[in-house]
Design a protein that fits this description.
The structure holds 2 protein chains of 2 kinds. By secondary structure, chain A is an alpha+beta fold. Chain A is built from 21 helices and 11 strands. Chain A is flat, with a radius of gyration of 28 Å. Chain B contains 3 helices and 7 strands, in the order αβαββββββα. Chain B has a 5-stranded mixed β-barrel. The mean pLDDT of chain B is about 80. Classes of the chains: A alpha+beta, B alpha+beta. Strand 1 of chain A pairs antiparallel with strand 1 of chain B.
């Protein structure tokens, strides 16, 4: 019975989505229709929630007469995985997607600012999206199909997904992906209503922030999940599906910055609209990549070409429709005020240029295999070295510029003053270089120290001379060229040390600049928006330190051990006590008991497992990680060998925890920004001026 | 030029310069950093030189998995027509199994053995890497609905 209720609710939701979109679009002209759209949005949310509840009920009660439940659940599964299993499969996860979309629609209807017309148009577009996705579910991925006769037992859930990480990862990512549907709808609404005072950007800001925060947490959570469940010791594999979540994040970040300028001074009006369209388009492309299985990926679900074609059609309609609307209406929008070449606006422009470039690099790398196969019929893949050559330099370049942005005033900034206030950050960067050197290559300390000292003195002299005469400029240019050559030679001879120095110098530069920024603000202007920028930028620096530390200084050991045999890694001695059979609720595990010694003192016992799930006939690895906060000792259990020996793989990943800590700080920054916005929205009188 | 036009021009030229730079970097990086995928038949037909990195995929041949010294493992990848012997040192993915689809990344040794640096197995029982499907289709081993 519940499946039929769910099916009926979903059909009613489809009808309501149509009502919402029609009345919303008509509502641009007539206020009566606009209120109908709000009502329809509420109804849409209620009915989608009902459908989702029905499916959840079927999963919890293990109703195997529902095909989706029979294919993806099992009576022996713990309750938590019965619930999270609802979105651990294609059909259920699409229903979750629509539920999140409906929540955003209702939020626009009730909390939407920016006037009746804008809200109505945004609801209209949002309704169209909901209509398309519900249609997609009903036609290609109906979770309520019945199975007759019902099997006695379900097929179980992919064991890799039976993990607490799954409870949070997909919903968080979806709140992020789908959150950009709200900014997309507002952008389209602005184009439809011809809103020229950038009110749409202000109305869309909370949604933009929620989407960005959720996506930040979702990506970080997914990377953490991969880190501890796959047993490969890595946190990012440049897998197409990882890239699919990274691209909307990058463009979403660009959008957050660009929309700031649009709201404040009216600059980049069209560009901001375009970014809002691009962010959601990339979310849709991400869905297409995950759901269609066209690319070889660890995430690919069982594939069905019909789904891929349907989603591709939806992407085409949404993207082309929005771009057409943009081409038609954007030229009619009025321009904003002007700004000087040195200003906050220019800094935000550079931010956007870099982020657009880095997104392009990821986009090409991700989709190149698809185009290549379409053109030549041959398969190839683009690996991590490609991203190391493209993503890393562009993104590091962006990070070098980040500290200047908050130091420059709107419209007309003072670069000299900014450089002066950033001097402590500069010193922190130089200090980072020497700290890294003293750890990894103390012998080079003297040489590099001499180079920096000479470069500093000569550089200062050159600046002074260049101000006085033409010859000074020639000498300065010569000096710049020779020092770049010297640095390049150094980079060629010891690339490893060079990258470590560079990455940590940039990380220290960004973090110290955030501290400078925080210290320079008087309490009266310590607005949430400023806190947001400080935290988000500092978090980026922290994450960079984590990535650089793990990538450059990881140690790895692989050995076959019998009981009471040991292996060593990076100062730790791991002694295998033995491997024991342990039974879980729906799996059998081989659990290794490993004693960890450091300097002949036992410091920990670790128990990595290898689990077999009989219902699904699959193995998973359950790694053991011991973190000091600065470094992770990571142990995975491999296969059994002859004579009761086992393959053991161990890593020491220095600074790995910083990767996720930094992401957490970034998300906190987003929350600070969101809090500031909501405060302005709901208690405008408390805040005399929308201080930015 | 009005300030507005000047701003537009600055914006457009910044985009063009960045776009050109990014494009140059992307093309340069793509030239040397793509890995071609070959089926076992391709490997024997194309006489790929040893030391060139590529990916090979197919099914793990039944009864071919043998443990070597230390953590090394030997197995054979087949597309039903041709076989490629593979050496791998490390921890196999949890879903690696005889008779199942697999993709190995690495290079050929002068002896003709494929030294794999990384092994990717499928993620769940219903999923097969698309390259493996097309390799099996080309060798006639793929049955629709499999």
């Amino acid at each position: 019975m519940t499946a039929e209720i769910g099916q009926l609710a979903l059909c009613l939701a489809l009808a309501l989505a149509l009502v919402q979109s029609a009345s919303g679009l008509i509502g641009v002209r007539s206020p009566g229709a606009a209120s109908v759209a709000s009502g329809a949005a509420t109804g849409l949310f209620v009915f989608v929630a009902l459908a989702f509840g029905a499916l959840t009920y079927a999963f919890v009660t293990s109703d195997f007469s529902v095909l989706d439940v029979a294919n993806n659940s099992h009576t022996l599964k713990p309750l938590i995985y019965k619930i999270t299993g609802v979105w651990g499969n294609h059909e259920g996860s699409m229903l979750l997607w629509v539920l999140v979309l409906a929540v955003y629609s209702a939020a626009i209807a009730f909390l939407g600012r920016g006037g009746v017309k804008l809200t109505a148009a945004a609801l209209g577009v949002q309704g169209l999206l909901a209509f398309a996705f519900i249609l997609f579910i009903l036609f290609t991925s109906n979770p309520f199909l019945r199975l007759d006769p019902p099997p006695f037992e379900g097929a179980g859930l992919n064991p890799l997904l039976q993990d607490p990480g799954l409870a949070f990862h997909p919903p968080t990512l979806y709140i992020g992906y789908v959150g950009f549907s709200a900014t997309f709808s507002y952008a389209a609404a602005a184009l439809i209503t011809g809103d020229s005072d950038a009110g749409w950007a202000r109305a869309a800001r909370p949604f933009m922030l929620i989407a960005w925060i959720a996506l930040t947490l979702g990506i970080a959570g997914g990377s953490w999940w991969a880190y501890y469940t796959l047993g490969w010791g890595g946190f990012w594999f440049w897998d197409p599906v990882e890239n699919a979540s990274l691209m909307p994040w990058l463009i979403g970040t660009a959008l957050l910055h660009s929309a700031l300028a649009t709201e404040r001074t009216g600059a980049f009006r069209s560009w901001t609209l375009l970014l809002a369209i691009a962010a959601f388009s990339l979310s849709l492309i991400g869905t297409f990549l995950v759901r269609s299985g066209v690319l070889s990926s660890v995430h690919a679900f069982a594939n069905d070409p019909a789904r891929g074609v349907f989603i591709l059609g939806m992407i085409g309609a949404a993207v082309l429709g929005a771009l057409g609307l943009f081409a038609w209406r954007a030229p009619k929008l009025e321009g904003g005020t002007s700004f000087e070449p040195v200003s906050r606006e220019t800094a935000l422009l550079l931010n956007n240029v870099f982020l657009a470039a880095v997104t392009t690099a990821v986009f090409v790398g991700t989709l190149f295999p698809l185009f290549y196969r379409a053109l030549t019929g041959r398969d190839l893949s683009v690996g991590p070295p490609y991203y190391a050559l493209t993503f890393a330099p562009i993104f590091l370049g962006l990070l070098v510029l980040v500290p200047f942005g908050p130091r420059l005033a709107w419209r007309r900034g003072d670069l000299k003053e900014a450089a002066r206030t950033l001097m402590p950050a500069m010193l922190a960067a130089i200090a980072a270089v020497f700290i890294v050197l003293s750890i990894v290559a103390p012998r080079m300390l003297l040489g590099v120290g001499a180079f920096v000292a000479v470069a500093w003195l000569v550089g200062m002299g050159c600046v002074r001379m260049a101000r006085r005469s033409l010859w000074g400029i020639v000498v300065a240019a010569f000096f710049v060229v020779t020092s770049i050559a010297a640095i390049a030679m150094f980079a060629r001879s010891t690339p490893h040390t060079f990258f470590a120095m560079g990455a940590f110098a940039i990380a220290a530069w960004v973090i110290a600049a955030s501290v400078v920024d925080a210290r320079s603000r008087r309490r009266s202007v310590f607005a949430p928006a400023a806190i947001a920028a400080i935290l988000a930028h500092a978090g980026l620096g922290i994450t960079l330190m984590g990535i650089a530390g793990t990538t450059l200084w990881r140690s790895e050991a692989l050995q076959v051990l019998g009981p009471n045999e040991s292996m060593t890694i990076d100062g730790y001695t791991l002694r295998l006590h033995g491997v024991y059979r342990v039974d879980g609720p729906n799996y059998q595990a081989a659990r290794a008991l490993i004693e960890v010694r450091e300097n002949d003192r036992v410091i920990a016992a670790m128990a990595p497992e290898k689990r077999l799930y009989p219902a699904e006939q699959q193995d998973t690895t359950d790694t053991a990680i011991r973190s000091t906060g600065f470094s992770d000792l990571y142990v995975a259990l491999g296969d059994e060998r002859d004579g009761g020996k086992w393959v053991i793989r161990a890593y020491v990943n220095p600074l790995a925890p910083f990767i996720w800590a930094g992401a957490g700080v970034m998300a906190l920054g987003g929350l600070a920004g969101l809090w500031g916005r909501l405060r302005i929205m709901f208690a405008p009188r408390l805040v005399p001026q929308a201080a930015e | 030029m009005t300030p507005k036009q000047r701003r537009r021009l600055a914006f457009a030229s910044a985009l063009v310069v960045a776009g050109a730079g990014a494009a140059a970097l992307i093309i340069y990086a793509l030239q040397d950093n793509v890995l071609y995928f070959y089926s076992p038949s391709d490997v024997s037909e194309k006489h790929i030189a040893s030391g060139i990195a590529f990916r090979v995929g197919g099914l793990v041949e039944k009864n071919s998995v043998k443990h070597g010294a230390g953590a090394t493992i030997h197995f054979v990848i087949t597309d039903g027509r041709t076989q490629v012997p593979v050496d791998f040192t490390g921890v196999l993915p949890a879903l690696f199994r005889e008779g199942q689809g697999v993709v190995a990344m690495g290079a050929l040794e002068p002896t003709g053995t494929f030294a794999a640096s990384e092994i990717l197995a499928k993620h769940d029982e219903r999923y097969m890497p698309p390259e493996v499907v097309s390799a099996l289709k080309r060798s006639g081993r793929w049955k629709e609905g499999q």
